[in-house]
Amino acid sequence: MKIAIEGCAHGELERIYETIESIEKEQNIKIDLLLCCGDFQSTRNVADLQTMAVPRKYMDMCTFYKYYSGELVAPILTIFIGGNHEASNYLQELPYGGWVAPNIYYLGYAGVVRVNGIRIAGISGIYKGHDFLRGHHEFPPYTDKTCRSVYHVRQLEVFRLKQLSGKVDIFMSHDWPRGIQEYGNKAQLLRFKPHFTEDIESGQLGSRPLEELLKALQPTYWFAAHLHCKFAALVPHTRNHIKRNNPGDASSSSSSSSESEDENEDNDDSRTARQNVPATPVPVTKFLALDKCLPRRRFLQVLDMPSNDNSEGKLSLDYDAEWLSILRTTNHLISVKDNNYYLPGKKAGAIEERCNFTPTDEELEHIRAKFESLSVPENFCRTVPPFDPEEDYNYKQTHIEQANPLLNPQSNEFCSILGIDDPLCLAMLASGKDLPQTASLLDSSADIKTDQGNLEQSIEDVPTIVQHVATPPKRKLNMSLPAPVAAVEPDKNVIELPEEVDEEAMPIIEDSKVEETPAIRTSPNIKKLKRRNQSIYQAEEDD
């Protein structure tokens, strides 16, 4: 199977597909799959454009909206991850991935899928240390701060990816793994990007969590973008890292990070010795970073990989059962708070908490029972009107407010089947907001390649997930009421008894108090308690 890898797309989908078409004609080949490594810019309309963290002069609609509206259709299956220049409100509707347009699939905050048997994993966003330990607390409309923090990598996604076992064929990231320059032509990189020198010397070039993932997963290929240059590297691994003792060791705590840094130093000291004694073939990751989509820039690479050919000649996009199980078993670790929190690890002391979420056979069987088929359903639907060039021709000079958050039917259906929570809903509820409106299906016409039956099923599934996520606020409302509904019937009995006792109790109570009591009608509970107490006291005197 021939796979095209793109660096930073920056919304230039039409140009990228034209480049692929020209390569196919020139080399007489057929490219089957396109992978984009971030900055995809899936802006559907002008409102989406307001959530993209770029200066206003760079806010351009580009061409994605044509594929969203159905004016154009992606000629090949396209899978992408998020970067640091995205329509964050749209991508946040799909935290676990989904179709952003027909034949264009987003992997989510992090995700793993299989295309004709090829296992593809990826993580969206870029690393910033001050946000790494926080929860996914952002939701639209964004502030200047949350407009940027929303695309910062969080520890939960890294932790989940470290639970994977088995072979990962392709890994996609926007950032580079830290220290990757040491495994390629570093001198050439610095000639092209001399301002990298300071970051390399301070150890700031690249992402520390991605460095940990590179060592833990040891994928066959790793593709990245972000730094707008082409750079290749070969990263050798040691065998003892392939089989991890405990995936939970990789929680993003300070202790685990210090261990990884010590481990890096040991690996650097012994790398030469390992290469001199190759007892067995050393696993190697082939790393490649690509440029952004501009003329005369190296932004596209074609890779030929063996795959399980489909008899029908069509690519099969499937969920990864192990990844689904990890999502389900780590659902309780989701945080939507704007403060640091820590994930379970083996150094938790006497606290017995699961820290290894690599699925067991029983957990994998549970996933297969929940999903009749692991094939990703083609359930794309439009949730907002697309950009209209004639109507919005002056959008760069017009002030447009950010849109309110929406629930995407794809996420609702996925969360309902798997039994997990949507972080967007949790973030809204934690901030005291009402649940976002479930997006209605707009213009579900024949030009969109969507099965009508799947759409109807998605609509039926929407109330299920909304009711599931809405449970916490309902409980909160019940707790805030003055009395539960079940207490109404006993209250009626309490009212009846004092009316009979009042006649006997009248001589005991002064007349002035009897006149004041019925006047206080706004506090019936006080009146009931007073009468009930009086009857008790009178019974004691009679005894």
TrEMBL record:
Xref: Pfam families: DBR1 (PF05011), Metallophos (PF00149)
The keyword Hydrolase belongs to this UniProt entry's keyword annotation: yes
Entries under InterPro entries matching the protein: Calcineurin-like_PHP (IPR004843), DBR1_C (IPR007708), Dbr1_N (IPR041816), Metallo-depent_PP-like (IPR029052)
Transmembrane segments: none
Occurrences of domain Lariat debranching enzyme C-terminal (ranges): 275-424
SMART domains named in the record: DBR1
Cofactor: Fe(2+); Mn(2+); Zn(2+)
Residue span of region Disordered: 242-278, 513-543
Keywords: Hydrolase, Iron, Manganese, Metal-binding, mRNA processing, Nucleus, Zinc
Family the UniProt entry places it in: Belongs to the lariat debranching enzyme family.
Protein name: Lariat debranching enzyme
Gene for this chain: LOC108614656
